[in-house]
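Consider the tokenized backbone below.
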């Protein structure tokens, strides 16, 4: 986040090698998830997806559902800009939002719900996108910055697609 994604990636690569050697599986999975997030920050979505998938597999192996869902969220965030079947991604993100909410990870659930709304929007389904966006409730007064920005961006994109440029600019 401080613009040092490449430095973070190098440090994480070294840490992961040490964790593998020492058989620190939980630490390795956490480092893989952090590596995925560093790749995402560095604008490397394919690497972010790859690391998130590996981390998710390790978290599931150790029955850590919450961390596995966070890895899935990172994987979806990395996939969100790629072309493809948006309706399927929207359904996947909506399902993940429900899982995250059940686990008490409200701000992450909000992020997944916003990813679902944006996927519907990019698919051209403005009505479903508006409904999905309305269903994503703000659960906290002090919302993390990425979620707040994604909410504003999604509302701006929807307003623009609906022909409301003033609302889009206001967002």
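A designed sequence for it:
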């Amino acid at each position: 986040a401080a613009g040092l994604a490449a430095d973070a990636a190098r440090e994480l690569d070294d840490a992961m090698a040490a964790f593998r050697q020492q058989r620190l599986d939980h630490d390795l999975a956490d480092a893989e998830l952090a590596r995925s997030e560093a790749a995402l920050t560095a604008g490397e979505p394919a690497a972010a997806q790859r690391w998130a998938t590996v981390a998710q597999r390790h978290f599931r192996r150790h029955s850590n559902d919450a961390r596995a869902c966070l890895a899935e969220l990172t994987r979806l965030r990395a996939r969100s800009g790629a072309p493809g079947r948006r309706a399927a991604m929207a359904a996947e993100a909506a399902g993940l939002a429900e899982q995250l909410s059940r686990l008490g990870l409200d701000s992450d659930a909000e992020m997944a719900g916003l990813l679902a709304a944006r996927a519907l929007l990019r698919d051209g389904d403005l009505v479903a996108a508006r409904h999905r966006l309305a269903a994503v409730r703000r659960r906290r007064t002090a919302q993390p910055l990425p979620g707040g920005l994604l909410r504003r961006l999604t509302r701006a994109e929807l307003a623009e697609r609906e022909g409301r440029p003033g609302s889009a600019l206001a967002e």
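The radius of gyration is 17 Å.
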